[in-house]
Amino acid sequence: MEGSRGKFLPGSPEVMGGALQGQDWDGYLRGAVQFADGSIVGFTSDIAINNLRRSDGVPSPTAINNQERSLNVANYFAKTYDHSLLAGTAKRLRPVVAFMTGDMLGIPRDDLAEFCVALELLHTASLIVDDLPAQDNSSKRRGVDALHVAFSEWEAQLTAIAMINNAYKLIVIADRDNGSNYELADYMSTVCGENGLCKGQGEDLRLRNKSPKDIKVDDLDRISYLKTGLAIESAIMGVVIIAGTKCPEEAKQPLLYYAYHLGIAWQVKDDIDDVRAPIKKTGKSENQDAKNKKPNYVTVLGPDEVQKKLDFHLAEAQKYVDKLESLGLNATRYREITEYVSQGSR
Ligand code: IPE
Ligand code: IPE
Ligand code: MG
Ligand code: MG
Ligand code: MG
User: Model pTM?
Assistant: First the structure.
């Protein structure tokens, strides 16, 4: 697998720059797939393919051999899965943050592998759907053509639905000794469902054709929390669920608040990049919000205030890093994430 590692880094140097290129982060990605039996190495590559293309419910990814795979209904989606999941500029923030959280709380990475893939699947599905003509109508994603452009709308829709189903399968089949799978599936369905990400996406799309001056920042915060922040929160709080009593009670609130501010900052930065960053950096179509006549943090706040808004949420996030450290937890990695966002290389 060593040879293919580069392919699964969170982005090529030209695209990413900054902190995500570090060896340590690379380690997180490898850790994502280091199963207890040592069978799988390489994030989103083998784990996605071995685990997620199967429809037979066999819990070990190693149980799938090539012959079984070729009979597998989900194998039909092999090309579309690969197109979206393995695209070079995917940053994989959510699994990376989940592993960081696990390290902080003393959770072996093996115990998080399925959840981390589920996070990336749910997120990738949300992007595939977000890009569809009926939503943001974006033609570029992760440095390549959006899935509906590279394939077709129906293949994009079905791939997203398959990914979501596979994500929940992974969550419920994970072999855990604290029996948290049910709670985790329940939580994730809230995060992604009609009162979470779907609601946020709906509210976001209803902003189309509204004038930025009629939009309050509070509205954008609520929408951003629902469409983007909750999924980032789940990368942290999902691990808290898995951790059970290994997570100190007094750490839960700072973890949640850190996640909130990181999530808003992530969307603010995304909106700034939508206006300012070239496709070479983001891997996405430029000025997509303007093309959709959709107000965002930049158009609602203006260029100076939007930077202050970003700085504010990153500073707030740092406060909760300090709080976690005062509780004796090693939150250095969280600090690196916020620095990464503030460096402008998101
Ligand atoms: C893009 O997410 C959509 C938002 C939630 C703002 P990411 O910026 O995490 O995209 P990938 O996963 O790296 O492609
Ligand atoms: C989308 O926000 C958030 C999702 C949950 C998909 P955007 O629409 O701004 O994300 P990009 O810019 O297309 O990645
Ligand atoms: Mg959108
Ligand atoms: Mg979009
Ligand atoms: Mg955007």
Answer: 0.84
